[in-house]
Amino acid sequence: MADNSFYSTGKRKTAVARVWLKPGSGNIQVNKKGLEDYFDGGEFSRAVVEKPLILTETQGKFDVMATLRGGGKNAQAEALRHGITRALTEADPELRIALKRAGLLTRDPRSKERKKYGKRGARASFQFSKR
Fold this sequence. Notes:
Ribosomal Protein S5, domain 2; single chain; five-stranded mixed β-sheet; alpha+beta
């Protein structure tokens, strides 16, 4: 992209967001669609994605272009938030303190636990019968 754009990657569960941030009017584009179109007009997803921009008061200053892959819509929204946060710290290192205090820079380590052998799921067992 251009010289004045910032790139970062955000992750959550199996969702991966590749985010490009460049100075602009606050337009957010996800997989070549608008934010409302991609997340089906979900207010929750919009609030999650815009949180780092609102917190740092840079909502109308940057255009966001992102490609999302894997996971569900909720995990994708949180991966996008993580990517935007990391791109903002690259654009302006002074924003790091505020974003770190809000807990937005930390990658959420929670993911699905694997199924164990001899069990029905990760922890759920088959019904036990004594006799």
